[in-house]
Amino acid sequence: MLTCLFVQTGLWADSDLSFSADIRPLLSKYCVSCHGPDKAKRKADLRLDVPKSAFADLGGYAAIIPGKPEESEIYLRMVTKEKDDIMPPPDAKNPMSQEDIEKLKQWIAEGAPFEDHWAFSAPVRKPVPKVPNQDWNKHPIDAFLFEKMAEKGLKPQVTASKETLLRRAFLTLTGLPPAPVDILRFADDQSGDAYGKQVDRLLQSRQYGEHRARYWLDAARYGDTHGLHLDNERAIWPYRDWVIQALNDNKRFDTFTIEQLAGDLLPNPGIDQLVATGFNRCNVTTSEGGAIPEEFAVRYGVDRVNTLTTVWMGVTVGCAQCHDHKFDPFTQKEFYQLFAYYNNLDEKAMDGNAFIYPPTVKLTSDEDHEKLASFDQKIEQIEKAIRVNLASIDYEDPGARAKDKERKDYIWIEDELPEGAKASDADGGWQFVSGSGFPTYQGIKSHRRSAQGSEQHFFTKARSKLVVGSGDTLFTYVYLDPIKPPKSIMLQFHTNDWEHRAFWGEDVIPHGSGKGAGHQWLGNLPEPGQWVRLEVPADSVGLSAGDRLDGWAFSQFDGTVYWDHSGIHTQIPQGNEGFQSMSVWMHFIEQAKDAGLPKDLKTIAKKGTDKRSNAENQILRDYFLEHVCSETQFLFSALHDQKKQLSDDKSKYEQAIPISLISKERKETRETFVLVRGEYDKRADQVQPAVPEILPPLPEGAPNNRLGLAQWLVDPAHPLTARVMVNRFWHQHFGRPLVITAEDFGTQGELPSHPELLDWLAVEFIESGWDMKHIHRLIVTSAAFKQSSAISPQALEIDPENSFLSHGPRYRLDAEILRDSALFISGLLVEKMGGKGVKPYQPSGLWKAVAYPSSTTANYKRDNGDALYRRSIYTFVKRTSPPPSMSTFDAPNREACTVKRERTNTPLQALTMMNDIQYVEAARCFAERVVEQSLPKTEQRLNYAMRLATGRTLAEDELKLLGNLYTKHMATFKKDQEAAKGLIQTGEAPRISDATPEELASLTMICNLILNLDEIMTLN
Amino acid sequence: MSHIQETTDHLLSRRSFFGRTLWGVGASAMASMMPSRLLGSPLNASFAPRAKRVIYLFMSGAPSQIDLFDHKPKMQDLFDKDLPDSIRQGQRLTTMTSGQSRFPIAPSMYQFARHGQSGTEVSELLPHTAGMVDDIAVVRTVHTDAINHDPAITMIQTGTQLPGKPSLGAWLSYGLGSENNNLPTYVVLNSTWTAKRDAQALYSRLWGSGFLPSKHQGVRLRSQGNPVLYLANPEGVTQETRKTMLDGLGEMNRKQFELSNDPEINTRIAQYEMAFRMQTSVPELTDMSNEPDHIYDMYGPDAKIPGTFASNCLLARRLVERDVRSIQVFHRGWDQHGNLTRDLPLQCKDIDQGATALVQDLKQRGLLDDTLVVWGGEFGRTIYCQGKLERTDYGRDHHPRCFTMWMAGGGIKGGVTYGTTDDFSYNIAENPVHIRDLNATILHCMGFEHNHLTYKFQGLNQKLTGTDAEANVIKGILA
Question: How many Å is the Cα radius of gyration of chain B?
Answer without folding.
Answer: 24
